[in-house]
Amino acid sequence: LGEYTGELICQKEADRRGRVYDKNDSSYLFNLNKDWCVDAGSKGNTLKFANHSTGPNCATRVVMSNGDHRVAVLAGRDLPPGTELYYDYGYDRDVAPWWAQDALRRGGASAKVKADKKAGARGSKAAEEMQAVEELE
Question: What is the pTM of this model?
Answer without folding.
Answer: 0.68
